[in-house]
Design goal:
A two-stranded antiparallel ribbon has the order 1-2. The protein is elongated, with a radius of gyration of 41 Å. It is built from 23 helices and 2 strands. The longest helix has 30 residues. Helix content is 63%, strand content 1%. Helix 20 packs antiparallel against helix 21. It is mostly helical.
């Protein structure tokens, strides 16, 4: 092995050295002594010894450099041509160099590919061997760390999952799914970083702006970051095609902040559509206290009659209900065809609750449930949201009975609705229904969300108020309307007044 390695080393330098000397020899007209033949010999073919093979472990290997080498009958290594005919073989040198480089590259490529595969990177041989494909290696490494993050999260190693997810996003910041996952992961421990990530994703992926902002809005709401909600809503009013959703978010946030100045500034913005400006001005004047009582109700009735879109009409009716205006139920019924069915159901039930007509509300809910052989998720969401805002345990238990008619429950995808049911039971201190919701959640999950007892206290009229930031972020993502309703209920418990109304006149209904 030692002799072979030494000959290999000699071979590497022999190609350029002897070819260069023989080239110089020929350039001088072969008049000087031949560089590779023994100077004491005659210079004749087949009898002149080869000087170049001196010291080689196996001289025949020199034929790769010079094919003129031969072994004579006496065993001596001789040159097969006369001295003047000695010439260089650059073609052999070039082929040997090319083969050496190709072999080295192949070994390097196979070694790199094998090493990366052993580590766990899902890299192909093409991605390692072809330089233009090297740009894909960042994506491949990102996928590897994404896989590590999922494995760690499944095993309950949250910190390790967070680190792997962060590396995955750093390696491939163009991956929208990774960025969204990281932003949602960091909501609990670093809301500021999470907000930064959402903003980056919204800018770098304009085609997914709407989806990004919806998730971001939910993140801000569950942390009760109402100032940021208002800022986001103002930005999206200019950019989003779903203006009604963002005007609702803006009004809700300012109502929670009790900040008429922000709304007054928004009303002065030239980009704000005239129909939204009316709503902003009414809300600002209401929060300021300059528009209230009968004057407010007249303005709302006028707004309802002149409404040019569904949300204007919904706002006008909802604000009248919150202010205790009589005769709103008739307006709600007259709005069929102008508002979607879920809005009519929600406003109708709220009208009964505001009028303290518990019997009428119970009849309405019972009739609605009787006409549904199987409740849709949307219908369950509406009823749970209503019963969180206006607790009525008899109706809540009727909802549970109707829900049980669905033989496929419990289902994992309905987990947010079971939490909504739990919230409605907490708002009405209905321990039986709360236990039913817990049972369904236990069946589909390994364990209940650990913040349920805190959520129970936050929603219960007799419980201690807890900051929303300690409750909602730890829950699975709830429907947006349920989130709004829970926040309103918690604000009501905190202020002893339901905050759906700027005048704060609504009271929780009888639980029986």
């Amino acid at each position: 092995m030692k002799g072979w390695l030494l000959d290999l080393f000699r071979l590497v330098w022999a190609f350029p050295y002897w070819n260069a000397r023989k080239s110089l020899y020929q350039f001088r007209g072969a008049r000087s002594s031949c560089p590779c033949q023994a100077p004491s010999d005659s210079g004749k073919a087949h009898v002149t010894g080869c000087e170049a093979v001196f010291g080689w472990n196996r001289p025949e290997r020199f034929r790769k450099v010079c094919p003129l080498l031969e072994r004579g009958a006496d065993g001596r290594w001789c040159c097969s041509v006369d001295a003047p005919e000695v010439r260089p073989f650059w073609g052999l040198a070039a082929r040997a160099a090319a083969l050496t480089v190709a072999t080295g590259l192949l070994i390097a490529i196979l070694g790199a590919w094998a090493g990366l595969r052993v580590i766990g990177y899902p890299v192909s041989l093409y991605q390692v061997a072809w330089p233009p494909a090297w740009r894909e290696l960042g994506t491949v490494r990102s996928e590897y760390f994404m896989k590590k993050a999922r494995t760690a999260y499944t095993a309950g190693h949250i910190k390790e999952a967070m680190i792997s997810l962060t590396i995955a996003y750093q390696l491939n910041p163009a991956n929208y799914a990774t960025g969204m996952m990281l932003a949602q992961f960091r909501q609990a421990d670093n809301p500021t970083l999470s907000d930064k990530l959402y903003r980056q994703l919204r800018t770098s992926h304009p085609e997914k702006r709407e989806a990004t902002t919806q998730v971001w809005l939910h993140h801000l709401l569950v942390h009760a970051a109402y100032e940021q909600v208002a800022t986001l809503a103002r930005e999206e009013l200019v950019n989003s095609p779903h203006e009604a959703a963002w005007i609702h978010a803006l009004l809700f946030a300012c109502r929670q902040l009790n900040d008429p100045e922000l709304l007054e500034k928004e009303a002065q913005q030239a980009e704000l559509a005239p129909e939204w400006r009316q709503l902003v001005e009414i809300e600002a004047a209401t929060l300021r206290g300059s528009l209230e009582g009968e004057a407010l109700q007249r303005r709302l009735r006028m707004l309802a009659s002149e409404a040019t879109n569904g949300y204007m009409l919904y706002y006008a009716l909802d604000r009248q209900i919150a202010g205790g205006s009589p005769g709103v139920l008739a307006q709600v019924r007259a709005a069929r065809g102008r508002l979607p069915g879920r809005a009519i159901l929600s406003l109708g039930l709220a009208s009964y609750a505001a009028a303290k007509d518990d019997a009428g509300r119970s009849r309405e809910i019972t009739a609605f449930l009787a006409g549904r052989p199987k409740l849709s998720d949307t219908e369950i969401e509406i009823l749970c949201g209503h019963l969180i805002r206006y607790p009525q345990n008899a109706s809540l238990r009727a909802l549970v009975e109707a829900w049980r008619r669905d033989s496929s429950i419990p289902r994992a995808e309905q987990m947010p609705l079971y939490i909504a049911l739990y919230c409605a039971a907490s708002a009405g201190a209905d321990h039986e229904t709360k236990a039913q919701a817990e049972t369904w959640m236990k069946i589909i999950g390994e364990e209940l969300p650990h913040v349920l007892p805190v959520l129970d206290q936050a929603l219960s009229p007799t419980g201690k108020n807890r900051p929303t930031a300690s409750v909602l972020p730890a829950l699975p993502t709830l429907p947006l309307e349920i989130t709004y309703t829970i926040l309103e209920r918690i604000a009501y418990i905190k202020n002893s007044t339901l905050s759906t109304s700027p005048e704060n006149t609504l009271k929780p209904q009888n639980n029986n």
